[in-house]
Design goal:
Layout: H1 5-18, E1 23-27, H2 30-41, E2 47-50, E3 56-60, H3 64-67, E4 73-75, E5 84-85, E6 99-104, E7 107-110, H4 111-117, E8 121-127
Antiparallel strand pairs: 1-3, 2-3, 4-8, 5-8, 6-7, 6-8
Length: 128
């Protein structure tokens, strides 16, 4: 059992890209499903499905041989040190190249969506 499931998700995806795998398995949770949905919408993964035993997601990664681009994932708020941000303090990630993912009262959303909705929340991670 892992103490930080979101960091585990980011690490498994990062390691899959570094090893040039086509897919990786990640344990299921509702929070991970929302984060993976954002990754898919923004083009950081191809797709994800629930495995047959319903205990893990199978995440299909992009083919790095074609694009040569490996996204970087960084965990910001950890279980030992939670980081919260107001809607007015949300800035662009890496000068607009990356995205922030926040857990807000409106759900798990990107920094752009949170700024547009005028809500703040816990700053989960950054992808660039």
């Amino acid at each position: 059992m892992t103490h930080d499931p979101i960091a585990d998700l980011l690490t498994r995806i990062r390691n899959g890209y570094m090893a040039r795998l086509h897919e990786v398995a990640v344990p299921c949770s509702n929070m991970k499903a929302e984060i993976l949905r954002i990754f898919k919408k923004n083009g950081y993964i191809v797709d994800f499905i629930v495995s047959e035993d319903k205990r893990s997601f199978i995440v299909e990664l992009q083919d790095v041989r074609k694009s040569k681009y490996i996204p970087s994932f960084r965990r910001i708020s950890t279980p030992g040190q939670r980081i919260y941000i107001k809607s007015g303090d949300i800035r662009k990630s890496r000068n607009g190249v990356g995205i922030f993912i926040l857990s807000t009262p409106k759900g798990v959303i990107t920094g752009y969506e949170a700024h547009a909705l005028g809500v703040g929340g816990e700053l989960l991670c950054e992808i660039y």
